Amino acid sequence: xxxxxxxxxxxxxxxxxxxxxxxxxxxxxxxxxxxxxxxxxxxxxxxxxxxxxxxxxxxxxxxxxxxxxxxxxxxxxxxxxxxxxxxxxxxxxxxxxxxxxxxxxxxxxxxxxxxxxxxxxxxxxxxxxxxxxxxxxxxxxxxxxxxxxxxxxxxxxxxxxxxxxxxxxxxxxxxxxxxxxxxxxxxxxxxxxxxxxxxxxxxxxxxxxxxxxxxxxxxxxxxxxxxxxxxxxxxxxxxxxxxxxxxxxxxxxxxxxxxxxxxxxxxxxxxxxxxxxxxxxxxxxxxxxxxxxxxxxxxxxxxxxxxxxxxxxxxxxxxxxxxxxxxxxxxxxxxxxxxxxxxxxxxxxxxxxxxxxxxxxxxxxxxxxxxxxxxxxxxxxxxxxxxxxxxxxxxxxxxxxxxxxxxxxxxxxxxxxxxxxxxxxxxxxxxxxxxxxxxxxxxxxxxxxxxxxxxxxxxxxxxxxxxxxxxxxxxxxxxxxxxxxxxxxxxxxxxxxx
Length: 498
Description:
Elements: E1 13-19, H1 23-34, E2 39-42, E3 56-58, H2 59-67, H3 71-74, E4 79-80, E5 83-87, E6 93-98, E7 111-113, H4 116-126, E8 133-136, E9 139-147, E10 150-157, E11 163-173, H5 180-185, E12 189-205, E13 216-219, E14 226-230, E15 235-241, H6 248-251, H7 254-261, E16 270-285, E17 289-290, E18 293-295, E19 301-302, H8 310-329, H9 339-362, H10 365-371, H11 374-377, E20 383-384, H12 419-423, E21 427-431, H13 433-437, H14 441-449, E22 452-456, H15 459-468, E23 472-475, E24 481-485, H16 488-495
Parallel strand pairs: 1-2, 1-11, 2-8, 5-13, 6-20, 11-18, 21-22
Antiparallel strand pairs: 3-7, 4-7, 5-6, 9-10, 10-11, 12-15, 12-16, 13-14, 14-15, 16-19, 17-18, 21-23, 23-24
Helix pairs in contact: 1-4, 1-8, 8-9
């Protein structure tokens, strides 16, 4: 049975130890549990933090929840986001980043609002499905020793004061910006140049305010730039620039906070849940792995919140890492597969961070004037923005052209089943029926031996393959394209990579 109580025995051995059970660590534990990997999760807190923090995730995260078998539990707890707008001091629209609310190519809407404590509860409840996954709360890791065949994690049970140790094949630090695991790896963060102080205020509305709208709003103010975000239910968030000369002790006080928010809501309309000062940073760790130690999430990268991609990036990290750990532990691949984790993920997350930095700059009126066409600022038109979906960096299919490294769509199969549900957490060889019919037997045998599911079909699958310009595509367990094949020889070459 999954252990979630403190003061009880700790496993002395595990395949994986995860340090930190926030959303990223909990998602990793679910993905490992699905593969039958014995996992110990250690978190120093006694319970889930009950106030809002991350409040937005995208279609890739919902697809990961689907992979983990938790999308149905999460779906009633989210709200689709129609997009983001940039306005000036008069409320004039400068940039429009509206997003479709209907399901897209990945089988989900592009963006969702959520309440982080609810997401964490869904993820932690999911761990109870896996007898090999143990969660120990109030557990503080203070040392990790690497040995030739294991990493030995030493921790203290903060409830009892007892010390424990666990031998693991690998240790993954999902332990935040101050990560102990990153410090033990011994590398610094590469600062990408954005460091600003902002006040984050979460409120509960006492009465409906539909005029505030469902869109996120970036207020490109000459006086004090700010961001408005609609949360779940009556929750609303404002992120407000801290100006030079602001008294930081005073700015978080309820009276001053209500004064700052009076531009949008009157003091009697809100209850303040939380007000806190943050330094929004942009940074990427220079090394994500050292031997048996790896890092993910905020331990590996930090991004300003303007794109809503901080937690999403961490979820993508573990979506990339979990299946690779599983294949290494099952003997399907050697340890070098884990070296592709940083090479694929770091350039991908950097592209998101750089866009978030640019968005942060646009909230500054001068930067907006430099970046937005004069016709927009003169009111003749509204500039449009589109979501990005970067490719992975070089890795497993390094040098393969075409669609390699792109996130794959999720077509419906005949009968209405979604592709990911049919495939499971493994490779998928998606082919036109005519191509599959003349595939050499040795390629079939290779794919099946390497734990790949073979999917054929017309309909939405056929439309996707026509768009890809190839009769076959090999999709990785994290739903990214390994490569598109135009011939039997190309598919055989792709199959040889897995």
